[in-house]
């Protein structure tokens, strides 16, 4: 839909100054003495939908974690038993042009690339629902576990007249392979916990009678028994050679013209991503 290099690259600092103006919600970080960090998405009135300010919060948190030399593991979760319903529609409507879409995509790809390359093991604790950008956040983590009563994970971007913007296509292929990724992306289906497990999208299902955060902490502890430098070195070696930065640039150039297109605007007005 777009010719290559149609959009001018902007410095992240400039994009950050734009995004931080779109308030609502927060992303919070807790670092524990045992090397566990908990990142909490917090806009519970909107199922933790992401605003510009939350994007900036997440960026700052990732930068802080890059300097945490004793960190071993990270849990990414949402407030009030919901993971994340994607982009906050009020925020999205305010930046609904291809140019803004490209900037937002650049910023979030950068954040999640840095997040994915952190030397700690990361786990998405998926409760409630993970839609659109929320689904993309899950695959930026090394592992994913989902509660038994969760509604599911949905790469519903196609329903909104767009494609994944935050690098989620590459990461989904890494997790479940080419053919399954095509199926997930072209159906726009909401996958329930059992379906997620069957296709390899999640690593475990948390029984309904378990405390989800306690379960997640215990699950990670089994994989972080070694010294921090061993854990970090293992992850670095496994990650090495998996990513191609040029792929992300191509994706955001393809994505940006869809952002703010007529079909995208119509989908926003209908709030279609929540309809099955």
Automatic annotation (TrEMBL):
Record function comment: Decarboxylates ethylmalonyl-CoA, a potentially toxic metabolite, to form butyryl-CoA, suggesting it might be involved in metabolite proofreading. Acts preferentially on (S)-ethylmalonyl-CoA but also has some activity on the (R)-isomer. Also has methylmalonyl-CoA decarboxylase activity at lower level.
Catalysed transformations (reactions): (2R)-ethylmalonyl-CoA + H(+) = butanoyl-CoA + CO2; (S)-methylmalonyl-CoA + H(+) = propanoyl-CoA + CO2; (2S)-ethylmalonyl-CoA + H(+) = butanoyl-CoA + CO2
GO biological process: fatty acid beta-oxidation
Lyase recorded as keyword: yes
GO molecular function: methyl/ethyl malonyl-CoA decarboxylase activity
GO cellular component: cytosol
Name of the protein in question: Ethylmalonyl-CoA decarboxylase
Class of enzymatic activity (EC top level): lyase
Record-listed E.C. numbers: 4.1.1.94
Record family assignment: Belongs to the enoyl-CoA hydratase/isomerase family.
CDD domains: crotonase-like
Gene3D superfamilies, per database record: 2-enoyl-CoA Hydratase, Chain A, domain 1
Location of this chain's protein in the cell: Cytoplasm, Cytosol
UniProt keywords, alphabetically: Cytoplasm, Lyase
TM helices/strands, residue ranges: none
Family annotation (InterPro entries): ClpP/crotonase-like_dom_sf, Enoyl-CoA_hyd/isom_CS, Enoyl-CoA_hydra/iso
Xref: Pfam families: ECH_1
Superkingdom of this protein's organism: Eukaryota
């Amino acid at each position: 839909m777009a010719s290559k290099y149609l959009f001018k690259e902007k410095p992240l600092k400039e994009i950050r100054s734009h995004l931080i103006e779109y308030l609502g919600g927060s992303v919070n970080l807790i670092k524990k003495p045992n090397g566990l960090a908990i990142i909490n998405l917090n806009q519970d009135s909107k199922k933790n939908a992401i605003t510009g300010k939350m994007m900036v919060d997440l960026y700052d948190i990732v930068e802080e974690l890059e300097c945490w030399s004793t960190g071993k593991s990270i849990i990414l979760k949402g407030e009030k038993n919901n993971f994340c319903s994607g982009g906050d529609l009020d925020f999205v409507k305010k930046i609904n042009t291809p140019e803004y879409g490209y900037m937002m995509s650049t910023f979030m790809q950068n954040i999640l690339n840095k997040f994915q390359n952190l030397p700690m093991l990361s786990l998405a604790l998926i409760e409630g629902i993970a839609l659109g950008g929320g689904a993309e956040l899950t695959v930026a983590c090394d592992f994913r576990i989902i509660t038994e009563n969760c509604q599911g994970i949905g790469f519903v971007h196609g329903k909104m007249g767009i494609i994944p913007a935050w690098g989620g296509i590459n990461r989904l292929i890494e997790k479940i392979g080419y053919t399954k990724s095509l199926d997930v992306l072209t159906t726009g289906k909401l996958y329930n916990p059992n379906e997620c497990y069957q296709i390899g999208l999640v690593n475990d299902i948390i029984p309904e009678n378990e405390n989800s955060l306690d379960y997640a902490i215990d699950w990670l502890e089994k994989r972080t028994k070694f010294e921090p430098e061993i854990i970090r070195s293992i992850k670095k070696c496994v990650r090495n050679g998996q990513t191609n930065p040029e792929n992300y640039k191509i994706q955001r150039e393809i994505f940006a013209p869809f952002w703010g297109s007529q079909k995208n605007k119509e989908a926003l007005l209908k709030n279609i991503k929540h309809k099955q």
